[in-house]
Design brief:
One of its GO terms (molecular function) is metalloexopeptidase activity. Keywords: Hydrolase, Metal-binding, Metalloprotease, Protease, Zinc. This is M67 family peptidase. By secondary structure, the chain is of the alpha/beta class. Helix content is about 20%, strand content about 40%. The chain has a single domain, classed as Cytidine Deaminase, domain 2, CATH 3.40.140.10. The protein has three helices and nine strands; from the N terminus they run E-H-E-E-H-E-H-E-E-E-E-E. A nine-stranded mixed β-sheet has the order 7-6-5-4-2-3-1-8-9. It is globular, with a radius of gyration of 14 Å. It starts with a strand and ends with a strand. It binds zinc ion (ZN). The site of zinc ion has 6 residues, from strand 4.
Length: about 160
């Protein structure tokens, strides 16, 4: 289960609105207790997508509208900040402009490089600069698909 404070959830929504219609990306800092993760802080990072994961030839390789790239250097910086605060990086988030918060095939391919089985993928849906549904996902160990993770935001259950 993933618990996000209301403040962190609001910060994710605000980031998604700020970068709309591009995707936003960031890291979730918190505490890991078995399979339970508590997010207490987020770190917004720059979407450094530059065509790293091409899936189809007709793609516009420079569009950041439906893809994101998490730079390993940003990850490292977040990891250091987490450690300094006595926290750890428990997951990441990104937005889906004008789409529901379901992971895409590109998300699945991109996630292989980032995550272990307990690493949470939070997706914030944002339509016309209004934040809508948010969902959390876990990539299964063999990387073949995501499964929905129970998500609680500031005491309110989401799915
Ligand atoms: Zn996505």
């Amino acid at each position: 289960m993933l618990t996000i404070t209301a403040e962190s959830a609001a910060a994710i929504a605000a980031h998604a609105i700020a970068t709309y219609p591009d995707e936003c990306v960031g890291l979730l800092l918190g505490r890991l207790n078995g399979t339970d993760k508590q997010v207490v802080r987020i770190i917004a990072v720059e979407n450094r997508w530059e065509g790293q994961v091409a899936l189809a030839e007709q793609d516009d390789p420079t569009s950041r509208r439906d893809r994101f790239y998490l730079d390993p250097r940003d990850y490292l910086r977040a990891d250091r900040a987490a450690q300094a605060a006595g926290l750890e990086v428990v997951g990441c988030y990104h937005s889906h402009p004008d789409h529901p918060p379901d992971p895409s095939e590109r998300d699945r391919v991109g996630a292989q490089a980032i995550a272990g089985p307990s690493f949470a993928f939070v997706i914030q849906s944002v339509y016309a600069a209004t934040a809508r549904d948010v969902a959390a996902w876990l990539l299964v160990e063999d990387g073949s698909h995501f499964v929905r993770e129970e998500l609680v935001v500031g005491g309110t259950k989401h799915a």
